[in-house]
Amino acid sequence: MDTYSVAPLLALLAPVLGAAGTAALRDRPPARELCGVVAGLVQLGIIATMVPTVLAGGTISFTISPFLPEAAIGLRVDALGVVLAGTSSVLWILTAIYSMGYLGTGPDRSLARFHVYFGLTIAATMGVAFSVNLLTLYLFYEALTIITYPLVTHTH
User: In the structure, how many helices (H) and strands (E) does the chain have?
Assistant: First the structure.
């Protein structure tokens, strides 16, 4: 049973909105770091709402763009996708909390940049987890590759 829902898109957009909040609050360190944690909790809640459908053997889908009839860009949540998304979301929350102590919460703007790219990385990971076809997987995996570069080269 395939259910059409906006939930996969919301799970993908939660970290993007968290990254936007982090960027907007870049000069207010405590609130800046909390944006990632709150967005992670929201994302985990959205993923949790999809679990009953998946456990019942169903899938949840959302079409982003009908690029071609055979190769639409879209999201499809199945059992493996919800496991990857849930694991990524939990690890994002834990890492965001840990990074507050490890990197600090000072006024350094590079910390805000780190948290913005970290949130965008999780969004791309959701796209990979929920890819409906190879084209969507390729696009989100390429986005993941490009977005993680600033995290790898980050200096504090």
Answer: 5, 3
